[in-house]
């Protein structure tokens, strides 16, 4: 006679709370194959490219995935963490998770982990790992200060897709955007001051460059642009009247549609032509340095500025796992965990 399958009850597992930090994603390898896999997942998301019709699929699979991976792989190689054989975004996000876990170590029933929306470690694998450790409640932390459907919302989409396939679902919370939180604005201002103190020049102005998005997404109601403006205004006020002028721009255009303006590269080019000699760029929409900050801004846009008459250029590091950056994440997580810890 077959023995009955044992029923696992809640009492069989320790009660734990999971915290899952999630960033955008990265290829697993800095070669065309790795970038192709990453881009296919990223550009097949209807939150990123909303029109996933036949024409887009033909363009994606027939043109983009046959040409873009080789070029982007070369860009990734410029910034790749050779020691760990991974992108800086993965290195930094892991460090943020480790430091947050250490900072919250007194809460012994908390488990802190990290994931990428696209690529590895996947949200699916980390939610599975947290539940296997007994986490029946999980706080998902999209590491985007400003909300957009193409970033924050797609993290939620994927998390709930994972839950849709689970019989015993954990309870889920998601942290809100923190684009104008005083802790975040203070951390940005402190990081700017610290970096400027290391330079051998004083910038005439600072460009605040945010990742762009198609204008039509804003026209449909996405609040991203308004939150970028709010961040810039709060940072300008916090830095005070004696700080260099802060100029809002948007980077990383893709495709042929109109994107949010002013464009970072065109603005930096014009500043050089207009006689600005000393420039710094801060990227308040990124919680961790990545291809868009380390290669696109620190290298490509630096070349644009110097080629058009500029003399001194510096890209200000993102908050990353700095003390100020970790304090922003820690305060956000502790606030959103109220009632659970």
Account of the protein in words:
The chain has helices at 32-43, 54-79, 88-103, 123-132, 149-164, 182-196, 215-219, 224-239, 264-273, 291-307, 323-336, and strands at residues 16-25, 110-118, 135-142, 171-174, 205-211, 245-251, 278-282, 312-315. By secondary structure, the protein is of the alpha/beta class. Strands 2-1-3-4 form a 4-stranded parallel β-sheet, with helices on both faces. The radius of gyration is 21 Å and the shape is globular. The chain starts with 15 loop residues before the first strand and ends in a 5-residue tail after the last helix. The model is unreliable at 6-11 (pLDDT under 50).
Features:
341 residues, alpha/beta, four-stranded parallel beta sheet, 8 strands
Evaluate the radius of gyration.
Answer: 21 Å
- Biggest beta sheet attributes: 4 strands, parallel
Oligomer: single chain
Strands ordered across the widest β-sheet: 2-1-3-4
In total, the number of strands is: 8
Helix content: 40-55%
DSSP strand (E) fraction?
Answer: 15-25%
- Tally the helices: what do you get? 11
Overall outline: globular
Average residue pLDDT: 95
How far apart are the first and last residues' alpha carbons, in Å?
46 Å
């Amino acid at each position: 006679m077959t023995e009955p399958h044992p029923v696992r009850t809640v009492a069989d597992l320790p009660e734990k709370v999971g915290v899952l930090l999630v960033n955008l994603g990265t290829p697993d390898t800095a070669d065309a194959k790795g970038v192709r896999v990453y881009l296919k997942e990223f550009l097949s998301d209807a939150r990123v490219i909303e029109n996933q019709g036949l024409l887009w699929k033909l363009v994606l699979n027939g043109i983009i995935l046959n040409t873009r991976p080789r070029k982007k792989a070369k860009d990734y190689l410029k910034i790749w963490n050779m020691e760990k054989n991974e992108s800086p975004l993965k290195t930094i996000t892991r460090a943020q998770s480790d430091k947050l876990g250490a900072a919250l170590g007194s809460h012994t029933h908390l488990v802190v982990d990290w994931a990428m929306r696209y690529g590895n470690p996947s949200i699916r694998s980390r939610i599975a790992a947290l539940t296997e450790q007994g986490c029946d409640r999980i706080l998902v932390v999209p590491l985007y200060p400003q909300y957009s459907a193409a970033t924050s919302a797609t993290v939620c989409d994927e998390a709930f897709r994972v839950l849709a396939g689970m019989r015993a679902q954990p309870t889920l919370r998601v942290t809100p955007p923190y684009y104008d939180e005083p802790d975040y604005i203070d951390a940005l201002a402190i990081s700017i001051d610290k970096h400027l103190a290391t330079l051998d020049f004083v910038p005439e102005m600072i460009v605040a460059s945010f990742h762009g998005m198609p204008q039509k997404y804003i026209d449909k109601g996405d609040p991203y642009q308004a939150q970028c403006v709010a961040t810039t205004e709060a940072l300008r006020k916090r830095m005070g009247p004696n700080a260099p002028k802060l100029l809002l721009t948007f980077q990383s255009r893709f495709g042929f549609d109109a994107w949010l303006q002013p464009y970072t590269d065109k603005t930096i080019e014009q500043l050089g032509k207009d006689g600005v000699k000393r420039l710094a760029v801060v990227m308040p929409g990124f919680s961790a340095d990545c291809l868009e900050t380390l290669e696109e801004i620190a290298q490509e846009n630096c070349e644009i500025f110097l080629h058009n008459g500029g003399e001194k250029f510096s890209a200000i590091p993102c908050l990353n796992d700095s003390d100020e950056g970790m304090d922003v994440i820690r305060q956000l997580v502790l606030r959103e965990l109220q009632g659970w810890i």
